[in-house]
């Protein structure tokens, strides 16, 4: 026969079962939390891996894939002419063909284009996805420099331009070395701009040494111009002197006190 539990024993037994149940419930919840954290950590890790792979793929596509590789046929040249044809400019950057334009140094391209003797300056822009737009400034003839008995065409930087001198250019004699040569070229341009069309037609040669200028007229008369200062005034004074005071030498270096002889 079973002995009936006393009321106090029943309560104790119920309490033990309840305590065990609560303990088991806590363990279950802890396990669930651990599993949830593991799942969250795994999802986070996978998310990081996917993000890194996507970033790597994007970097490869942008900087290394053929998608942005420079294609010669996609290079546009603006400012080209018969002196510097577009084909010559494109050939100067051939070394960059196949390089993604996202990695291409624009300064390196400019340097390659400017290596062409008759290109004075250039600008380069990317033309997406695989081209370039190159704008060049071609050297223009500004004077004909006498070298011995021959004249060669030069631009404002003193760089020789192949070909015969175009009509209307001043014939000049210049120093052969910088910085006097650069100064002399600047002086000649200033004086030539100040001369009237009539005086330009009368001019045979302009000699500049970087400090003083002398103009030899076509009939061998001489104009002592002095510096490039007050060139506009000197031009007007010279015109009056030629018209009103025939002479072999005109000295307008001090235009307010001109001298003839």
Could you characterize the architecture of this molecule?
Strand 9 and strand 10 form a beta hairpin. It contains six helices and twelve strands. Helices cover 41% and strands 22% of the residues. It is of the alpha/beta class and 261 residues long. The model has no long low-confidence stretch (mean pLDDT 88). The protein has three domains: 56 residues; 71 residues, Roll (Ubiquitin-like (UB roll)); 118 residues, 3-Layer(aba) Sandwich (Rossmann fold). The termini are far apart. The radius of gyration is 43 Å and the shape is elongated. A nine-stranded mixed beta sheet has the order 6-5-4-7-8-9-10-11-12. The protein has a three-stranded mixed beta sheet with strand order 1-3-2.
Low-pLDDT stretches are none
Average pLDDT works out at 88
Q: So what's the CATH class of the largest domain?
A: Alpha Beta
Helix share bin? 40-55%
Secondary-structure class: alpha/beta
CATH topology of the largest domain: Rossmann fold
What is Rg? 43 Å
Largest sheet: 9 strands, mixed
